[in-house]
Amino acid sequence: MRSDNEGVFNTLYSNGAPDTRQKQTGDGGNEFFTAQTDFVAPLKNGLKFETGARAAIRDFRNNNASFQYDYADNAFVRTQGFADRYQYTDQVYAAYGTFSQSFKEWGYQVGLRTESSFYNGTLLDSDSTFGIDYPLQLFPSAFLTYKLNAEDNLQLNVSRRVNRPNFFQLIPFPDFSDSLLLSRGNPGLRPEFTNSAEISYQNIFDKNHNMLVSIYYKRATDLITRYQFSEFNDFLGRETIVSTYQNSNSSTAYGMEFTLKNTFWKKIELTSNLNFYNSIVDASNIETDLKNEQFTYFIKENLSIKLPENFTVQVNGSYQSRTAFAVGGSGGGRGGGGGGYMGGPTNTAQGYSIPVWFVDFSVRKDLWKRTASITLSMQDIFRTRLSGSFTESAFLVQDTWRRRDPQFIRLNFSYRFGKFDVSLFRRKNTRIEMEGMDF
Q: If I label 168, which of 262, 282, 413, 418 is the partner at 20 to 30 A Cα–Cα?
């Protein structure tokens, strides 16, 4: 896969100083290789054993160029001395095994996953290489389900997971696209580990209505956290503010999640999800008394309406409030004050990710006895889908936002040749494109 990009930045100063104009161009590509195998063996008395292994290797290369605008020549002039050509290889190897068993009123599953990874990056212009080998780690998990009656059941689960730093969090050379706030990775970052415990209650009112309520607690150690500090930059010849990443002591979060699914008149399906939690990010190891406590909530709604002539209309909406600790995993890519190229919340002890909301819409027509379909969809119909952050440190107060994907309309046609087992592609979190996520 190849990509090309270009960005132009214009900084305006309120004190009347001349504008600063900058430009960045780039191109690159990446290659993925994934091998995965799974084995399931039913045993006696309802006991089942499952095991598998996976290897994921990714090669990435990028060629960037930075330019400063020369007002005397009325042209952009390339800035020399930046290490802006780089490549890296990321390798992750993992294996797992689980035992599960079901009885009349209860069931359990216990599992163990092991993972090791290797990371090597090269700055081509400076002929320098940095690498990190993450040692073998074990990740146990346990699930217990108890059926109270025909409509109610309880589930308890505990697990441990890892979130490895991604390339933009590790790369050691600075990004000068924002002359007021440089962005730089930290090759000394350690992986963060999260231990989670959750108890859930499900009530199936009838075949058309059910509810799921969960109470959870999460604790992450060595949390990968955005952090700003000041240092003298030799190239610019002045004191600059740098936004980078550090491992903070820990973070904790506790909250509740409600999911309600309703079907009306066999035509309307409404799924509602409400999640709210309190989080505390402890970064006192980085800066004395640096802690950040934040209450966060998000709401998701999915409405599907079946119409005559095999038409289906679907509306999806979501709202997320201020976020300092993302309970679903670390956000954060390259780029200034936060928000990240990934578009998700960024863990921080110096502010929060800004609230974001959006609504998507689609209409589908099933054809030929539902062996084919054509779908017309529009993303972010109100043009509100922004990611960004508020950051407050001893050096700078900054509001940033970015729009990763603009509004767009997509027309899709699909045809099903036979039965298709999508579980083969969903098993064991095969989203290798997401950097830093566990197996």
A: 282
Distance CA 88, CA 167 (A): 8
CB 430 within 8 A of CB 439: no
Residue 351: exposed, middle, or buried by beta-carbon count in 10 A (0-12, 13-18, 19+)?
buried
Alpha-carbon distance values, 87 to 130, 171, 307, 351 (Å):
11, 10, 51, 32
Range of the domain at 225: 95-426
Task: For residue 166, give the CATH number of its domain.
Answer: 2.40.170
**What 3-state DSSP class applies to 397?**
strand
Considering the domain boundaries, does residue 192 fall inside one?
yes
Q: Could you report the average pLDDT of every consecutive run of 10 residues in the chain (439 residues)?
A: 70 74 76 92 89 91 78 79 71 94 92 90 72 85 92 94 82 69 82 94 90 96 90 76 90 96 94 96 92 95 96 96 80 41 67 93 92 94 89 82 80 80 46 36
Write phi, then psi, for 85 (nearest 5 degrees): -120, 125
Q: How far apart are CA 178 and CA 343, in angstroms?
A: 19
Whether the model pTM is above 0.85: no
